[in-house]
Amino acid sequence: MCGIVGYIGNKDSLSVLLEGLRRLEYRGYDSSGVALLEKGNIRIVKTPGKIKDLDSLLRKEKISQSVIGIAHTRWATHGAPTKLNAHPHTDCRNNFSIVHNGIIENFASLKKELVKQGHKFISETDTEVVAHLIEKYYKGDLKKAFLQALARLKGSFAIVLLSKKHPDRLLFARQGSPLIVGVGKNENFLASDVPAILSHTNRVIYVKDAQAGEIRKNKVSLFDIKGRPQPVKIEKVLWDLESAQKSGYAHFMLKEIHEQPQVLKHLSCAGIKFDKKLISILKNTKQIFIVACGTAYHSGMVGKYAIEEMTKIPVAVDLSSEFRYRSPIIDNQSVLIAISQSGETADTLAAVREAKNKDAKIISICNAVGSSLVRESDFVLYTHAGPEIGVASTKAYTAQLMVLYLLALNIAKVKKTLPKSVISRYANILCDTHNQARTILKNSTRHISEIAGRHHNFGSFLFLGRNVNYPSALEGALKLKEISYIPAEGYAAGEMKHGPIALIDEYRAVVCIATESKIYEKMISNIQEIEARKGKIVIIATYGNADIKRHSKEVIFIPKVEELFSPILVALPLQLFAYYVAAKRGCDIDQPRNLAKSVTVE
Predict the structure, then answer these.
(1) Domain 246-418 class, CATH top level
(2) Do the domains 3-243 and 246-418 sit in the same CATH topology, yes or no?
(3) Which of 151, 150, 158, 152 is nearest to 177 (CA)?
(4) Does residue 313 carry a pLDDT above 60?
């Protein structure tokens, strides 16, 4: 949530900061602002709205060239998205300017204390207290004042500090919210995520929790929050900026949908390597817990079906936000699989820490090298999906599914719960999914767009699936809600008679996942119940099923695949359907209202 950019060097900092903000806008787009050191003073320009609104405002301002500055794009937590609440924030005398991601949980008590001491606040945000704390402690030593202020904070944060009294540096700190340093030649950068600075450098430092530091034009220093020096480890980013561009597609989401065959091919053909450490973890496993949020939670639900069927190990799937509040029964023979695209999801990290406190082993499925989740895990399975800019997850989801299938298959090898012939057959199925996904995108995209055009005005949707495609129904409903704002519910089709059938009439649309499976006939019975109540039906079915058109004219076909692995293929038409419904409604697909890509606060 929220995006930070900082720069110091020889270039015009404003152009660097604005470029960085544009590349981070998927992290928050309620308001934005910049703070520049201009002729010895801090100049702040900020506005509600998107980066284009800030850009328009800056074009009207007379701003002198500056070589140091900070910037922020906001996803509102404390206070409405107004100009006053937009970052950067400053102290009473405008000596210090702050940008911040996260939540300062004790800001109310800190603010009360500071107000009593004479400090004047102008915003409703939790962030402003940080600037005033630094003002309170500053006695000429910026680093000391910064660390004293950090010591008072409770919660999560990534903070960058600009000071007019020290124009040769930016200070920063991280606790529970992502922050990276970009290392250049005669220039250095700070950012919430790699795309912000990738056009300038591919050399980065992933700041760890409880780390702080400062960047100067020719120097990067790291220290812990008590001021003790820390080693600096520079890593090279292996993907390029083109990967984070639209490449001619109308939206990032559409581009990322079409990137899925390549992602699936890379994962399925490369497989996952089990080292001795992971084998020893899995050999002793008596139970598995999967924790995740949102789309990742749905992938985890599919993972439960796959792992239990292939390995006979019991699996419990929890929403990360609920896991630690139900007193889960975990011990040193438990494995917790944490799934997160960003590796910074606050609720998932909290669940991981809860499990670690009970001696469980942690396996993470993640897309972000150097993230908090990666560092807190005993073993990491990377999804290698590349940057996903669209807020509604697509390729990260199918990559997570593929990794879960591969994990299940490898556990089956270790525990010898499947015959070698079955393991080989399953591996071949997975290796062919990229071709089948490519077939769907080639043959069905226009057809799905046409169906969406006939259904985009419906007031609500129901998504129904059974067995391993019950999670697919949940994910299809979530995608539609996220980007089209149409109320949608996902249900296990067998539950329809236990309540949701009351919703069915000629004004409701129902998406039914009726691919070839052992429960196909039961799914057809559910479809007939909807027909009898005049619901408008869209069906996802298997190629070659001519009979299905007796139940609806609106059928989307996918290639034939074994039922257990069908959620990978089912995901694509569901994503495309949501995309084209939203497009027909004129929605902001890549930046849906009220959402941000990485949820780094609870």
Answers:
(1) alpha beta
(2) no
(3) 158
(4) yes
For the record, the structure tokens of 183 come out as 């290392």
- Of 2, 293, 366, 512, which one is the catalytic site residue? 2
Which of 50, 136, 265, 597 is catalytic? The answer is: 597
Q: What is the per-residue pLDDT for 597?
A: 57
Is residue 597 annotated as part of the catalytic site, yes or no?
yes
29 with 591: CB under 8 angstroms?
yes
Domain ranges of the chain: 3-243, 246-418, 441-596
- H helical segments located in 39-153: 51-60, 107-116, 128-137, 142-151
pTM (whole model) above 0.85: no
**Sign of the C-alpha dihedral, residues 263, 265, 267, 268?**
positive
- For residue 11, which phi and psi values (nearest 5 degrees)? -85, 170
Q: pLDDT band for position 240 (50/70/90)?
A: low
Instruction: Give the tens place of pLDDT for each residue, 30-82.
Output: 888 999 998 889 999 998 888 888 888 888 888 888 999 999 988 666 667 78
CATH class of the domain at 441-596: alpha beta
Give the distance from CA 505 to its chain's centroid: 36
Architecture of domain 3-243: 4-Layer Sandwich (3.60)
Q: Determine contact, residues 32/86, Cβ cutoff 8 Å.
A: yes
265 is a catalytic site residue? no
Per-residue pLDDT at 243 exceeds 80: no
From residue 33, how far is each of 359, 360, 594 by CA, in Å?
A: 44, 43, 19
